[in-house]
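Sequence, please.
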């Protein structure tokens, strides 16, 4: 039942055209491509979440990359220069969530165990910067997604943008925290039945400067595993 409803959500996501600026951008990128992918057929649509529908760990990023998820159709996947996906999937492999250290395309046979990956915005935004209105247009998808992942116990927010968005999503579900917790790498807070953990986004800006290292990602994933193994499941039910 959960898988069937997630399928309905995926269908709604990939046909969405709510944000004219993002629609133009994602389709232009898919049409013009870049030299290293000139022979590729781009996905060029909103990118749905992916992973284990019975996951206890939910990872939330910012948005698909123009030549990554927007090309492959899978979040954090497909850009040969994409440090984010390389670092993230290698860490998930070391933590036991993925059988392989790389995700090549949405068509490969990679499967995640006890982990689901998604993003706040489903379309690749220019300069990786969605507007507030574009964020708000996408948040209902994230609300539905969380409700359709009833075993989620821990949410790992990759960056401050995802941290803020998840607090909004959880507030929409009736779970708020006061004072509002601040994002930081390794920050933790309980929000209703969920533990929200912060992790610096695995972007080039963070990894090339050493602000985020593989060891740091390993540490937050190990921390997440401690809680998924110890805490009870989430309690949201699907009302969409």
């Amino acid at each position: 039942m959960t898988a069937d409803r997630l399928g309905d959500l995926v269908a709604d996501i990939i046909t969405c055209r709510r944000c004219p600026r993002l629609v133009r951008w994602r389709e232009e990128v898919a049409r013009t491509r870049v030299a290293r992918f000139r022979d590729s057929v781009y996905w060029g649509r909103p990118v749905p979440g992916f992973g284990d529908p019975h996951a206890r760990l939910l990872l939330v990023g910012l948005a698909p990359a123009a030549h990554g998820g927007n090309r492959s159709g899978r979040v954090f996947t497909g850009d040969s220069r994409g440090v984010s996906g390389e670092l993230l999937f290698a860490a998930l492999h070391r933590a036991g969530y993925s059988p392989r250290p790389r995700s090549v395309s949405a068509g490969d046979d990679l499967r995640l165990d006890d982990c689901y990956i998604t993003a706040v915005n489903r379309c690749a935004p220019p300069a990786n910067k969605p507007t507030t209105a574009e964020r708000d247009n996408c948040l209902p998808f994230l609300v539905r997604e969380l409700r359709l992942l009833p075993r989620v116990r821990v949410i790992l927010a990759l960056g401050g943008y995802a941290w803020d968005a998840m607090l909004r999503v959880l507030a929409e579900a009736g779970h708020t925290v006061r004072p509002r917790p601040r994002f930081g790498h390794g920050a933790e807070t309980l929000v209703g039945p969920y533990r929200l953990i912060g992790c610096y986004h695995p972007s080039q800006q963070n990894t090339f400067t050493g602000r985020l290292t593989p060891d740091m990602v390993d540490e937050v994933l190990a921390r997440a595993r401690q809680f998924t193994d110890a805490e009870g499941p989430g309690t949201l039910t699907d009302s969409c």
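The domain at 2-230 is CATH 3.40.470.10 (Uracil-DNA Glycosylase, subunit E).
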